[in-house]
Design goal:
By secondary structure, the chain is of the alpha+beta class. Helices cover 30% and strands 24% of the residues. The protein has 4 helices and 5 strands. This is GNAT family N-acetyltransferase.
Length: 152
């Protein structure tokens, strides 16, 4: 299977919005703080147009089957680096999962970050999402900080 990774373009938006819905649906069981109904995590058009972000898509046989973005964010003043790459919108069509596509997208995003002189990459994953956590561990990520919450 040949996987092409390319920058997303504006005409990809409908597919990307469906991917976003897939992410939200998959994450709802892990987060009871999400509003009911349709919600959006990302401003996808802004990510496509931004010079400080790369929204990538994975294409197999002319079909977009995966996505992910990297965005340059400012680090906290007390950190060693001034900026870092934050990754998100990691999604692979269920039919194509388990074939290494997410890993290829991650690798391209890390190359993008390095090409901009960044030395750190961060992402968020729900602690209970064992499959996603294992994929990121396999890619070399390490747990860093556990965010906790409490409903009042």
């Amino acid at each position: 299977m040949m996987v092409e990774i390319r920058n997303a373009i504006e005409s990809d938006i409908e597919i990307l919005l469906n991917f976003e819905k897939g992410i939200v649906d998959a994450e709802r069981p892990f987060d009871d703080s999400l509003k009911e109904g349709e919600i959006h995590y990302y401003d996808l058009m802004d990510l496509i147009r931004s010079e400080r972000a790369a929204l990538l898509v994975a294409v197999v046989n002319n079909e977009i089957v995966g996505s992910g973005y990297g965005k340059i964010l400012e680090a906290k003043p007390f950190q060693k680096h001034k900026e870092y790459a934050y990754l998100g919108f990691m999604y692979v069509n269920p039919t194509f999962r388990g074939q290494g596509i997410n890993g290829v997208i991650l690798q391209k995003l890390m190359e993008w970050a390095k090409s901009r002189g960044l030395t750190e990459v961060k992402l968020d994953v729900y602690d209970a999402n064992v499959i996603a956590k294992n994929a990121y561990l396999k890619a070399g990520f390490k747990p860093h900080l556990l965010k906790m919450r409490l409903d009042l």
